[in-house]
Amino acid sequence: DMDLCLTLLLICLCTTADGPNGTSSNEEEEGCLSVSRRPQSREPIAAAIQKLGVQLLQNLEPTPEQQNVIISPLSISLALSQLALGAVNETEELLMHHLHANTLPCYHQSLHNILEQLTNNDLQIATRIFLRPGFKPKEGFVTESRQLYDSEPAVLESLEQINEWVENATKGQMSDFLSALPPNLLLLLINAVHFKGEWRARFDPRFTSRGVFYLDDKHMVDVDVMENAKHPLRLFIDNELEAQVASFPFQKAVSLLVVMPLSGQVNVSALSAKLNISRLNNNLPKERVVQVKVPKFKLEYAQELQEVFTKLGLGKMFSSPNLAEMADGPLLVSSVMHKSSMEINEEGAEAAAATTVVISRASSPVFHLTQPFFFALMDDMTQIPIFMGVINNPNPDAPVLQRDLGDKEKMGFPIDKNQQGFFLCENCAICELLLLHDI
């Protein structure tokens, strides 16, 4: 039985000395329910979540300590959207603007309907509000959170309670999420997205061997490389992105989109300026059988998002937001914690790797995941990115080796005509935390 791919977002809210009051407009107006259920309402929601994900990646620079970046645009959008339920006036407008939802009618109800479509046996979404004992949020906020985001409030009793919820939500993949409770804490908003899916082509462990992943034109690392001689794949070279693009199919209408620049380097700023995930999906050709190599890896990523949100223009959330629909008295966001993990092996994975495409007249196409790449785990029906990230080094703990430019990668490998296979999302977790507290 495979474990999860999961994102978790934790938002911390606290109280401040003083602040404005106000009332937000109620979205539950006449006709909103029917508008939000129209199929055409899905596309702008998906585009908004895609855009937020790409913006975050632009501002989450890899570091020597964290060479890879893994986020869940879906999880982050859900957390900020729930926060927007409690916001009024400029704060609500600011959040909706950065969610790219300010021009979308019936946004919350439309997102709710999409969540109902997304949630199936392979994808689960869990949200929980933890309240400090004695803290009373407004009933309207609690009711809307429950109705729209299925977020049941619970009284915060201990640090262990939080960590246990996270561990359960991630099926044991994320333990000890918080080392201590922040001071002056009023409210925690935790969102978890868990994906566990099978892909349609198995990697037979007999064909897994030691290989290399090229970090750049001078350096490489050793990795275990899985091989499949007959993998169903949709792939092409995108001239605008100057990259190879491939889509790995999962069962139940989920796919893994990978973009690997021909340069061998993922310049997120340059890539994101031209990156349109829906366009790439629309340009994908018909599926065909391809020789595939994929590195095995297990990666973790943790990031406090206050700095990146401030850089994007959401700094007011952390200084003087108007959250009057959430509770009486001034509140502010003290922390947005994000944590993720991801594993790919023969049995499965969460978010995948990228590759090189070689088209040979003498043989089947070859797609080898041997260089840095961008990825997005997509729900095919809604085009929502469940996970998104950049993998620069799938084995960051391994020693970096000098690349022998004269030694070309050996492309051939055994072919088993009877290979079937499956791809499971395993050990992928993202955690995000929103904190409200006193000052």
Report on this model:
By secondary structure, the protein is of the alpha+beta class. The protein folds into 2 domains: 5-198 and 299-343 and 427-437, Antithrombin, subunit I, domain 2 (Antithrombin, Chain I, domain 2), CATH 3.30.497.10; 205-297 and 344-424, Alpha-1-antitrypsin, domain 1, CATH 2.30.39.10. Helix content is 23%, strand content 33%. It contains 10 helices and 18 strands. The protein has helices at residues 32-36, 42-59, 73-85, 89-98, 107-118, 139-149, 159-169, 268-274, 277-283, 306-314, and strands at residues 5-15, 69-71, 123-131, 152-155, 185-195, 209-214, 219-238, 243-249, 254-261, 288-295, 297-304, 331-344, 356-358, 366-368, 373-379, 384-391, 401-402, 426-437. Strands 2, 6, 7, 8, 9, 10, 13, 14, 15, 16 and 17 form an 11-stranded mixed sheet that branches. Strands 1, 3, 4, 5, 11, 12 and 18 form a 7-stranded mixed sheet that branches. Helix 3 (73-85) packs antiparallel against helix 4. The relative contact order is 0.26. This is Serpin domain-containing protein.
Overall pLDDT: 80
Tally of separate domains? 2
The CATH H-level superfamily of the largest domain is Antithrombin, subunit I, domain 2
Question: Care to count the β-strands?
Answer: 18
Low-confidence stretches: 17-27, 349-363, 408-426
CATH architecture of the largest domain: 2-Layer Sandwich
Shape: globular
- What is the top-level CATH class of the largest domain? Alpha Beta
Q: Class by helix and strand content?
A: alpha+beta
User: The CATH topology of the largest domain, please?
Assistant: Antithrombin, Chain I, domain 2
Q: From the alpha carbons, calculate the radius of gyration and give it in angstroms.
A: 22 Å
- How many H/I helical runs? 10
- Describe the sheet with the most strands: 11 strands, mixed
Order of helices and strands: EHHEHHHEHEHEEEEEHHEEHEEEEEEE
Termini separation? 46 Å
Helix fraction, binned, reads: 10-25%
Q: How much of the polypeptide forms β-strand, as a percent range?
A: 25-35%
